[in-house]
Design a protein that fits this description.
This protein is of the alpha+beta class. The chain is built from three helices and five strands; from the N terminus they run E-H-H-E-E-E-E-H. It has helices at about 20-40, 45-50, 125-130, and strands at about 5-10, 55-65, 75-85, 85-95, 100-115.
Length: about 130
């Protein structure tokens, strides 16, 4: 995996059964992608304001294998699979830190869009170069 971000499961992340509510895995993956961009030197608010672009989710899939529970420490990982003219495809995983058990596997496709018109726009070459490095 190309990047990894730690997450702790809070009570608010869980459902009535005491396990992480399925939609929250997507939140965890989103946080990891945001932090990945940040480590590459790209803040999403600056990309919107200065470059006039946003990355939006076009497709998201997840396979839920084992539950995460309150207070678990997780690793959210990701790998860049493909870069198109205006698209990025990533694979992401959620693993419990204590035993490295794979809890959830996801695939996400992002599209670079013009921040004002929400129409696809080529990903700036500086971003592509850093992602591929």
């Amino acid at each position: 995996m190309n990047f990894r971000w730690p997450v702790r499961v809070y009570y608010e992340d869980t459902d009535a059964g005491g396990v992480v509510y399925y939609a929250n895995y997507f939140r965890f993956m989103e946080r990891a992608r945001t932090e990945w961009l940040r480590t590459l030197g790209f803040e999403q608010d600056r990309l919107r304001e200065e470059a006039g672009i946003l990355f939006v989710v076009r497709r998201a899939e997840a396979e839920f294998l084992h539950p995460a529970r309150f207070n678990d420490l997780l690793w959210i990982t990701g790998a860049l699979n493909d870069v198109g003219r205006a698209t990025l495809a990533l694979e992401q995983e959620v693993r419990r830190q204590s035993d490295d058990r794979l809890l959830c596997r996801g695939a996400v496709q992002l599209v670079c869009v013009d921040a004002g018109r929400f129409r696809p726009r080529p990903i700036p070459s500086a971003i592509v170069e850093k992602m591929k490095a």
